[in-house]
């Protein structure tokens, strides 16, 4: 059926019911993409830690059958030059429903467009969910890092990441600029002969399905507020519209009412009385440092969400420990927030925490919460015992600096 993907002989597919709930067999086949750069270091460690947690939680009753699928540089070695994202990788991610990936390289300023973004777009994984919480013992630049406890909902299918742009001085950009000036009356392109042009689509449908997920998450997880983060003062019909459509959806679908005359809103008490508010993105970036406790679930557009993810990760110790998930209504692809960190590739040095915590999210997603709990507890114990990789060790005194794989081994040892 597949050209290069070997489906394990043992194991079954996860199935999806009509209401999008999952039917998870005891031996699910879970596809994984190893990832470029530090993917070779962190992905095997993640698999070992996950296997240990499952064994500790369920003995022989449950087990994941891992199935390698390919994207990025490894894909070009397996499938041939220039095959960065094979069709069968997308098919397998869809068919097996839940998967996990390492980071993939994207060249800057030319070359291929992001495979990470392509994967999200082609599978319509419109939610990028990135929880940010503090683990006791992790070094942080903040005095009270535990006050940062936020869930980032980053819109994953629209915005500038749709990749609609034209290179300066190309035939296409000349056409686009001509159209803007002659047909649309645009007068504000400062240097029309040497501009590249990028276009940013933000739709009502895309915003509504996304904000709906964020509010529902807040209700289901008993969170206090949902903040729409935007730059709507400048980009009125994209980011400003995101705010407008977001509030309107809170009112029409969740019965939110204006709070003190608005624009903030409040959901009915039957839905937890959650506050729906908004903040302009630049102000948000200073407030998360000064008053992080005022923010809880954060719903924002693609580019803002990318910046905010790394900024918030830094507040609780850095992107070595920042997990994430990409979700459609059906398919889920889990991945760390960080990239391929090329200077550390293959050195067995980096922190595998982000991808391990992404796998923890994956276990919870499939309902294996006992195994997920074991991962959280063993990570807490490992860090509290001062056993950390270089990124934390360089900010700590008396830490025991270990390699990427030894961090995973320590986690497995602390698992009970
Ligand atoms: N989802 C994805 O697959 C993503 C892919 N990328 C891609 O990755 C490539 C490299 O991007 P870059 O901007 O360097 O960002 P990276 O996130 O790869 O790395 C930036 C820095 O973050 C720190 N870091 C990253 N991962 C870890 C880890 N696991 N443990 C400890 N520290 C870590 C390192 O800091 P220090 O040097 O201080 O030790 C590293 O130099 C690019 O091609 C980019 O497009 C980027 C983000 C996401
Ligand atoms: O696709 C990439 O190369 C970068 C993506 C990214 O930074 C992210 O998703 O956080
Ligand atoms: Mg990023």
Key features?
Isocitrate dehydrogenase [NADP], two-stranded antiparallel ribbon, binds magnesium ion, Isocitrate_DH_NADP_dimer_prok, Isopropylmalate Dehydrogenase, metal-binding, binds NADPH dihydro-nicotinamide-adenine-dinucleotide phosphate, NAD binding, binds 2-oxoglutaric acid, 416 residues
Descriptive overview:
- The modification N6-succinyllysine is found at residues 101, 243.
- With 416 residues, this protein is of the alpha/beta class.
- Helix content is 38%, strand content 16%.
- The chain has helices spanning 39-58, 73-79, 87-95, 115-122, 171-183, 204-220, 239-254, 281-290, 302-315, 353-365, 369-384, 390-393, 404-413; strands at 15-16, 22-23, 29-33, 65-68, 98-101, 127-132, 150-155, 164-166, 197-199, 225-230, 257-258, 265-266, 275-280, 297-300, 325-327, 332-335, 387-388, 400-401.
- The strands form 4 sheets. A 12-stranded mixed β-sheet has the order 4-3-5-16-15-6-7-14-10-13-12-11, sandwiched between helices. Strands 1-2 form a two-stranded antiparallel ribbon. Strands 8-9 form a two-stranded antiparallel ribbon.
- β17, α12 and β18 (400-401) form a beta-alpha-beta unit.
- The two termini are 40 Å apart.
- The structure holds NADPH dihydro-nicotinamide-adenine-dinucleotide phosphate, 2-oxoglutaric acid and magnesium ion.
- The site of 2-oxoglutaric acid (AKG) has 8 residues, from α4 and α9.
- The site of NADPH dihydro-nicotinamide-adenine-dinucleotide phosphate has 18 residues, from loops.
């Amino acid at each position: 059926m597949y050209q290069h993907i070997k489906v394990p002989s043992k194991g079954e597919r996860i199935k999806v019911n009509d209401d999008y709930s999952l039917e998870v067999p005891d031996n699910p086949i879970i596809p994984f993409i190893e990832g470029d750069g530090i993917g070779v270091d962190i992905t095997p460690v993640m698999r070992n830690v996950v296997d240990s947690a499952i064994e500790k939680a369920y003995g022989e009753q449950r087990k994941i059958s891992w199935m390698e699928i390919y994207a990025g540089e490894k894909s070009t070695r397996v499938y041939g030059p220039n095959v960065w994202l094979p069709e069968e990788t997308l098919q397998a991610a869809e068919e097996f429903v839940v998967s996990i990936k390492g980071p993939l390289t994207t060249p800057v300023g030319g070359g291929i467009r992001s495979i990470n973004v392509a994967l999200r777009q082609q599978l319509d994984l419109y939610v990028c969910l990135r929880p940010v919480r503090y683990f006791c013992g992790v070094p942080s630049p903040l005095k009270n890092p535990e006050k940062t406890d936020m869930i980032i909902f980053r819109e994953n299918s629209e915005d500038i990441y749709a990749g609609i742009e034209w290179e300066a001085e190309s035939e296409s950009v000349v056409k686009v600029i001509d159209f803007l000036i002659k047909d649309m009356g645009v007068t504000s392109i400062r240097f029309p002969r040497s501009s590249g042009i990028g276009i940013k689509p933000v739709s009502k449908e895309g915003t509504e399905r996304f904000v709906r997920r964020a509010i529902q998450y807040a209700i289901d997880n008993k969170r206090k507020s949902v903040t729409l983060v935007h730059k709507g003062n400048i980009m009125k019909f994209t980011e400003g519209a995101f705010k407008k459509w977001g509030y309107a959806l809170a009112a029409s679908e969740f019965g939110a009412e204006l709070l003190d005359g608005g624009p903030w809103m409040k959901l009915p008490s039957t839905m937890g009385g959650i506050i729906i508010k908004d903040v302009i993105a630049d102000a948000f970036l200073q407030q998360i440092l000064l008053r992080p406790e005022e923010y809880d679930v954060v719903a924002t557009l693609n580019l803002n969400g990318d910046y905010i993810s790394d900024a918030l990760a830094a507040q609780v110790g850095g992107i070595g420990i920042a997990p994430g998930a990409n979700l459609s209504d059906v398919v889920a692809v889990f991945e760390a927030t960080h990239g391929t960190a090329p200077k550390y590739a293959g050195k067995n040095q980096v922190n595998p925490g982000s991808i391990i915590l992404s796998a923890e999210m994956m276990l919870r997603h499939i309902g294996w919460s006992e195994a997920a709990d074991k991962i959280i507890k063993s990570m807490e114990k490992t860090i509290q015992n001062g056993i950390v990789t270089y990124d934390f060790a360089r900010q700590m005194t008396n830490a025991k600096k270990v390699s990427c794989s030894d961090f995973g081994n320590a986690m497995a040892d602390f698992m009970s």
